[in-house]
Amino acid sequence: MPARVTRTQRTSRMTMRRTIMVATITTAIIITVMVITTTRTITTTIIVTTSIVVTTITMAIPMLMKTSEGRAQVEPPEADASPGSASLSDSEAASLYRLMTWLSPSFPVGAFSYSSGIEWAVEAGDITDAVSLRHWLTSMLADGAGLCDGIFLTHAYRAAASVDDDSLAEVAELASAFVTSRERHLETAAQGRAFIEIARAAWNSPPLDRLIESCKSAIVYPVAVGLVSAAHAIPLAPVVHAFLHAIVSNWISAGARLVPLGQTDSQRLLAELEPVVSATAKRSLTASLDDLGSVTFRADLASMRHETQYTRLFRS
User: Fold this and answer.
1) How far apart are CA 247 and CA 264, in angstroms?
2) Which of 207-244 are b and which e, b meaning 16 or more Cβ less than 10 Å from the residue's Cβ?
3) Which of 20, 51, 97, 153 has its CA 20 to 30 A from that of 279?
4) Is 194 within 8 Å of 110 (Cβ atoms)?
5) Is the dihedral of CA 246, 251, 254, 255 positive or negative?
6) DSSP assignment letter at 76
7) Structural contact between residues 219 and 192, judged by C-beta atoms closer than 8 angstroms
8) Distance, CA of 16 to CA of 211 (rounded, Å)
């Protein structure tokens, strides 16, 4: 016969079952809460992430793509609008390149062998230092050969550009006759001839041959620069500025070797003469042939007396 279960045993078993049931329910509740919490977290994360991605794509699409007639096209980057960012056109770049080459100290016109009378001025004591050289060159630029050459260049250029052969011949003849001394004439005529020959050989232009034939006399340096620049359609204003910069640079180079001056003093002098060069160029562009004239008598005498110097480093 099965053993009889006492009341106490039945009570103990019922208590144990209730405890197990409560524990099971509690565990189930905890698991459910965890699942719900985890699900909400994942859902929230997915929603936030999706929102970020959608926002990013929404912002990026207008920046990268634009739709035109149903086709997606890559939008080109915006041009740099900062000052001075515009590039030169092909014609502007060619003009600048040629102008820098033709009026560079390395262009072989023999300018380094001429001093325009500065050698005699140094020997006579008129030029002794950077200050006196600056005063001398300021006069030559503003009231002497610099201004006259600038005017001749301007009128030769305009005559060549307008295909006025008669005016070009007159300007060339007047420029050759206007030189005050034999050595100065040798200087400007030799440089003009060299400039024409080299420019013709390396950068020949169809109009150039006809312009050269139009000049019935020797083509001096400023006239040569004017007609070659016109044949290549290089703007006049920068040509005049570059030409005057070239001749004053050569004068300073001669003075630096004769005084002598250091490289730093030479560059300071070139910087101090910048406004004089600019002002002379502006006057040259607006002057007529009736405005030609020189009041630099001492510089003219220097170019004449240079011929009789006992020792010389330069040809003028």
Assistant:
1) 19
2) ebeebbebbeebbbbbbbbbbbbbbbebebeebbbbbb
3) 97
4) yes
5) negative
6) P
7) yes
8) 125
Whole-angstrom distance, CA of residue 213 vs CA of residue 200: 13
What integer is the mean pLDDT of 222-250? 97
Distance CA 95, CA 284 (A): 21
Burial (0-12, 13-18, 19+ Cβ within 10 Å), 296: buried
Burial class (CB within 10 angstroms; exposed 0-12, middle 13-18, buried 19+) of 136: buried
pLDDT per residue as tens digits for the range 176-216: 999 989 999 999 999 999 999 999 999 988 889 889 998 98
Q: HSE-up of 280 (CA within 13 Å, CB side)?
A: 32
Q: Categorize the per-residue pLDDT at 18 as very low, low, confident or very high, splitting at 50, 70 and 90.
A: low
Q: What angle do CA 206, 209, 215 make, to 5 degrees?
A: 140
d(C-alpha 18, C-alpha 20), whole Å: 5
* Beta carbons of 77 and 85 less than 8 angstroms apart: no
User: Cα angle at 6 between 5 and 10, to 5 degrees?
Assistant: 80
Question: How far apart, in whole angstroms, are the C-alpha atoms of residue 16 and residue 12?
Answer: 6
* The residue to which tokens 């009026």 are assigned: 103
Residue 172 burial (CB < 10 Å; 0-12/13-18/19+)? buried
Residue 87's φ and ψ, nearest 5 degrees, are -85, 160
